[in-house]
C-alpha cells in the first residue's frame, strides 16, 4: 500500500434541523491512494454525497462539519481558510463533477469561456492560452469540432455532452483528485457507458485518483478499485472492489447484492429484497442502524454501534457478527 | 387463442410545436410513429428505450390521457377511439397507471385515505363506508396498516408511497395496469420489494401489465415479452429471454452491452463503450432507419429506406435490413 493521497479520519457532518440533529456523516474514515478509484456506494440519505461535499467544505447551513480531519498533501483541509480552499483546493487540486450538468454550468456563458476561466484562474495563463487550452480540453473529452463548440451555450448541448463539458472543466487544472457525485445517474444507459469510458480513460491517462459516488453497484464494479459502503451516515464495509463483490460480509451489503436484479437472473428466480425502509438519520436509536432490517440481528446490535474492524488487507466491516466470527463470512 | 386484452395498431402521436417565426411551417415532433402490438390477458409486456423514445407517450395514449394523431387502440374488443362517452368511462375503470415518482403522484394536501378512495368516489362506487373498507383492504394487500389513512404522503418513504399508489390503482379492479417506471425512483433495496409485490398482485388479481422502463435487467426479469423503442419506432419485439440471448437489432444489442457488468474482475473499465453520438431529435428524425446515424453496421440502404418490422420466426419481430 502506498502513502494515501487523501486521508479522512472520523469525519462528522450534521444538519441541525427543527426536528432534531441529522447526522448525515457519522464518524467516517477512509483513505484514497494515488491513482486509485474509491467508490462510495449507498442509498439516498446514506451520507455519500455529504461526505463528498464535506471534503470540499461545501456543506451549506444548517449543515456543518463537526469533527474529524481531512488530510491532503500534508495539511488538514478543515484548517484552511475559505480563500485557501477556493484558490488552492476546489477546482485546482481537487476537481469535481456533479450529477446534474445543467445546474452545474452557468446558462448565460458559453461553455468554452467557463472552461477557460478555470484555466485562467488556476494556471496563470493569458486569455489566449486559456482559450487554446479550453479547446484542447473540449477535444480531449470527446466533443466534436471543439473550436466551433467553444462559443456554444450549455443549452445547445445534450445531457451527455454537458457532462463532457463539466469533465473538461474538472480536469482543466490537472487535479490530483477528481470527485464525481453520481456523474451518470441522469443519463441514458448508452450515454452512461460513453461517460464511464471517458472517465476511465482520463483517469488512467493522467493517473488521477478518484472518489466516485453512486447508488449503482454496476458503476462501482466497472470503475472502482476500492469500495466503501455507507448506511445511515456510517461506513459499514470497506475493502477492495473485488473482495467486497466476491464476499460481501456486512448483512446490508449482502442484502444489497441479493436485492439486485441482474441481467442473467432466470425469470423464475426469487426476488430477495431487504425488508423495511432505510432510516432517516435523525435521532437514531442506539446501536446498529441496520438492525431493524437485519436478518441476523442480535441483542448486542440494539445496544452498541459496531465499530469498523480491520480485517485482512483493506477489508473493514462494522458488524457485531463479523467481530464475533472474524474468519467466516456472515452468511 | 383468446383475443388479446389490448390491441394497438399503427399508433401515432405527433406534437405540433410553436412556430419559430410567424411564416415558418410549424415543426412537428414525432413522439410515436406507427407502433403496433398486442397484449394478452394476464401477460406483462415490457417497453424499453432511452429518453425521448416515446415510451411514456405510448403509455399515455393507451390510457387515453393523450389523443393520438392516428391509430387504433382496442381494449377487450372495444375500439377506444371510436366509442361513446359512457363506454369510454366504463373502459377507463378497466385500466390504471402507476407513475415513476410516488411522492408527486399523490396529492400532498390529501390524506392517504382521501387519495386512495378518490377514484371510487369519481366513478361513484359504493357508500363512503364501503369505499373506506375497500381502501383498508387494499392497503393491507400492499402491506400497509389502516392507521395510514389519516396520514399525509410526506410522512412516508418512496417505497411506502409507491405501495399507496399501487393500492389506489387497484381500487377500481382494473384489468390493465400501466406501470410507468414504477421502481426507477426507488432505492436498490426497495426496488425488489415493489417488484415482488407487483408480481404477487398480478397473480392474485389476474392483472395485465404494460411495464415501461429504461432498466433492461428489471424488464427482463419482470416481463414475458419486451418491446424496444427508438425515436418513436418499434425496432424489436420478442420474448424477453430470447431478446437478451440473441438480440437482432443493433440498437437492442447496444442497450444490452451498455449495462455495466457486476463483476469487478471482468473489468470493462475504459472498454465500456456506448454508442457513438446522441439520440437525434424527434423533430427531424433521420431519413430511412432512424438508428442509422449511430449504427455500427449501417449500410447504404439504411439512410434511404425505412426497414419494415418483420417477423423472423417465433413471434420475434425486428426492423433492420441486416435481418431481411
**How do the strands line up in the largest sheet of chain B?**
6-7-8-3-9-10-12-11
Residue-averaged pLDDT of chain A, rounded? 89
Strand order of the largest sheet of chain A: 6-7-8-3-9-10-12-11
Shape of chain B: globular
Radius of gyration of chain B: 21 Å
Largest sheet properties of chain A? 8 strands, mixed
CATH architecture of the largest domain in chain A: 3-Layer(aba) Sandwich
Describe this structure in words.
- The complex is a heterodimer of chains A (331) and B (324).
- Chain A folds into two domains: 6-93 and 173-324, Rossmann fold; 102-172, no CATH class.
- Helices cover 33% and strands 22% of the residues of chain A.
- Chain A has twelve helices and twelve strands.
- In chain A, strand 11 (309-310) and strand 12 form a beta hairpin.
- In chain A, helix 4 crosses helix 5 (127-140).
- With 324 residues, chain B is α/β, with parallel strands linked by helices.
- Chain B has a domain at 237-259 and 272-324.
- Helix content of chain B is 29%, strand content 21%.
- Chain B has helices at 55-62, 85-94, 112-122, 128-141, 158-170, 188-205, 216-222, 240-245, 250-257; strands spanning 6-16, 28-39, 44-48, 70-75, 78-79, 95-98, 176-180, 208-213, 225-230, 233-239, 310-311, 317-318.
- In chain B, strand 7, helix 6 (188-205) and strand 8 (208-213) form a beta-alpha-beta unit.
- The longest helix of chain B is centred in the middle third of the chain and has 18 residues, at 188-205.
- The two termini of chain B are 29 Å apart.
- Classes of the chains: A alpha/beta (331), B alpha/beta (324).
Amino acid at each position: 500500500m502506498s502513502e494515501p493521497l487523501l486521508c479522512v479520519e472520523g469525519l462528522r457532518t450534521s444538519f441541525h434541523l427543527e426536528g432534531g440533529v441529522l447526522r448525515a456523516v457519522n464518524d467516517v474514515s477512509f483513505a484514497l491512494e494515488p491513482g486509485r478509484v474509491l467508490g462510495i456506494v449507498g442509498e439516498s440519505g446514506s451520507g455519500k454525497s455529504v461526505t463528498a461535499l464535506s471534503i470540499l467544505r461545501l456543506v451549506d447551513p444548517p449543515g456543518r462539519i463537526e469533527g474529524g480531519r481531512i488530510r491532503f498533501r500534508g495539511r488538514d483541509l478543515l484548517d484552511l481558510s475559505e480563500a485557501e480552499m477556493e484558490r488552492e483546493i476546489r477546482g485546482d487540486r481537487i476537481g469535481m463533477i456533479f450529477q446534474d450538468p445543467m445546474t452545474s454550468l452557468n446558462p448565460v456563458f458559453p461553455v468554452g469561456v467557463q472552461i477557460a476561466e478555470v484555466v485562467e484562474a488556476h494556471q496563470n495563463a493569458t486569455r489566449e492560452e486559456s482559450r487554446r487550452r479550453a479547446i484542447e480540453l473540449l477535444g480531449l473529452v470527446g466533443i466534436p469540432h471543439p473550436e466551433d463548440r467553444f462559443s456554444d451555450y450549455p443549452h445547445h448541448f445534450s445531457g451527455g455532452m454537458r457532462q463532457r463539458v463539466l469533465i473538461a472543466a474538472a480536469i482543466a487544472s490537472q487535479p490530483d483528485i477528481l470527485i464525481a457525485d453520481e456523474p451518470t445517474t441522469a443519463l441514458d444507459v448508452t450515454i452512461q457507458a460513453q461517460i464511464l469510458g471517458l472517465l476511465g480513460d482520463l483517469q488512467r491517462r493522467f493517473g488521477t485518483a478518484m472518489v466516485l459516488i453512486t447508488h449503482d453497484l454496476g458503476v462501482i464494479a466497472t470503475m472502482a478499485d476500492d469500495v466503501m459502503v455507507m448506511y445511515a451516515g456510517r461506513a459499514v464495509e470497506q475493502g477492495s472492489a473485488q473482495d467486497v463483490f466476491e464476499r460481501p460480509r456486512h448483512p446490508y451489503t449482502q442484502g444489497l447484492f441479493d436485492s439486485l436484479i441482474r441481467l442473467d437472473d432466470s425469470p423464475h428466480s426469487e426476488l430477495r429484497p431487504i425488508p423495511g425502509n432505510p432510516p432517516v438519520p435523525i435521532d437514531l436509536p442506539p446501536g446498529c442502524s441496520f438492525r431493524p432490517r437485519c436478518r441476523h440481528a442480535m441483542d448486542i446490535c440494539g445496544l452498541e454501534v459496531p465499530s469498523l474492524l480491520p480485517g485482512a488487507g483493506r477489508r473493514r466491516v462494522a458488524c457485531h457478527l463479523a467481530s464475533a466470527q472474524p474468519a467466516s463470512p456472515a452468511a | 387463442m383468446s383475443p388479446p386484452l389490448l390491441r394497438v395498431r399503427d399508433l401515432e402521436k405527433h406534437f405540433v410545436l410553436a412556430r419559430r417565426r410567424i411564416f415558418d411551417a410549424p415543426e412537428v415532433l414525432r413522439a410515436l410513429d406507427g407502433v403496433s402490438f398486442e397484449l394478452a390477458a394476464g401477460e406483462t409486456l415490457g417497453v424499453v428505450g432511452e429518453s425521448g423514445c416515446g415510451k411514456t407517450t405510448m403509455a399515455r395514449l393507451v390510457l387515453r390521457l393523450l389523443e393520438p394523431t392516428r391509430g387504433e387502440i382496442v381494449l377487450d374488443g372495444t375500439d377506444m377511439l371510436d366509442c361513446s362517452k359512457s363506454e369510454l368511462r366504463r373502459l377507463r375503470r378497466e385500466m390504471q397507471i402507476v407513475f415513476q415518482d410516488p411522492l408527486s403522484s399523490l396529492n400532498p394536501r390529501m390524506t392517504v385515505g382521501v387519495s386512495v378512495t378518490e377514484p371510487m368516489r369519481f366513478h361513484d362506487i359504493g357508500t363512503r363506508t364501503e369505499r373506506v373498507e375497500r381502501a383498508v383492504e387494499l392497503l393491507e394487500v400492499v402491506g400497509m396498516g389502516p392507521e395510514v389513512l389519516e396520514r399525509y404522503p410526506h410522512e412516508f418513504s418512496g417505497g411506502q408511497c409507491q405501495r399507496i399508489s399501487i393500492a389506489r390503482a387497484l381500487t377500481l379492479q382494473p384489468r390493465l395496469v400501466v406501470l410507468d417506471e414504477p421502481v426507477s425512483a426507488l432505492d436498490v433495496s426497495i426496488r425488489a420489494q415493489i417488484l415482488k409485490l407487483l408480481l404477487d398482485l398480478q397473480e392474485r388479481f389476474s392483472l395485465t401489465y404494460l411495464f415501461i422502463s429504461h432498466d433492461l435487467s428489471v424488464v427482463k426479469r419482470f416481463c414475458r415479452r419486451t418491446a424496444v423503442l427508438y425515436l418513436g419506432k418499434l425496432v424489436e419485439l420478442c420474448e424477453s429471454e430470447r431478446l437478451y440471448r440473441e438480440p437482432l437489432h443493433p440498437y437492442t444489442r447496444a442497450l444490452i452491452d451498455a449495462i455495466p457488468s457486476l463483476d469487478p474482475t471482468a473489468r470493462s473499465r475504459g472498454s465500456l463503450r456506448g454508442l457513438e453520438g446522441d439520440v437525434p431529435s424527434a423533430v427531424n428524425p433521420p431519413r430511412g432507419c432512424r438508428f442509422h446515424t449511430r449504427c455500427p453496421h449501417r449500410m447504404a440502404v439504411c439512410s434511404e429506406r425505412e426497414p419494415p418490422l418483420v417477423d423472423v420466426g417465433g413471434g420475434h419481430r425486428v426492423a433492420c435490413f441486416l435481418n431481411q
